[in-house]
Ribosomal RNA large subunit methyltransferase H (Effrenium voratum), 215 residues
Amino acid sequence: MALGLRASTPSAPWRPPTAGFQPRGIRKQGASCSSFVLGAWAVVGRFALGSAACRGFKVFVHMVGKSSAGGWEDAAAENYAKRLRGRTPAVEVETVCHKSDGQLMRALGKVQHPLLVLDERGAFVNSEEFTDLLFDSLQAGGARLGFVIGGADGLPDELRQVQKAQLKKEGRMRQLLSLGRLTLPHRLARVVLVEQIYRAQEIRRGSSYHRGEPK
């Protein structure tokens, strides 16, 4: 299957996690997807990123397929998600499972924050570049970002065909991103993605978790 990232927005306004926060786990019903205004980053600048960091970030992972709640994939992804919530800035990762491509597209049609679509035809990035893309997109999306992972049959054609002119007209952006040339089960792809989000957080924090090639 082709890996895809998509953003989503829940129906109710999101509030940052507090001291007694309990993970929401996986929702079966899709939330609205997001896309970002291209000029937001330039207008808000560093002040916006600092403000967002104070209240925490929200990342949605949209998937097509059955929930893996209780399975080893869910336990592995939650392990990294728990670490993300415990760091500063806090990052909450919520997985939204959709029963079909149609349900996915309807949910994504309602979002207002950046949308990254995982696909083998997308841009190849290393972990440092992924870190920049992640936090730049969160900044542009007002501390929200969505990823999408396709089901067993891959992504809907509508998501793979990025029409830049139309997206610019609508005032939003969608980007194809590749996690590599290997084909992964969508549940395993979710684990890889959440780990990379955690790695990006640690790179920004300057911890010893990431041991990349010396520059």
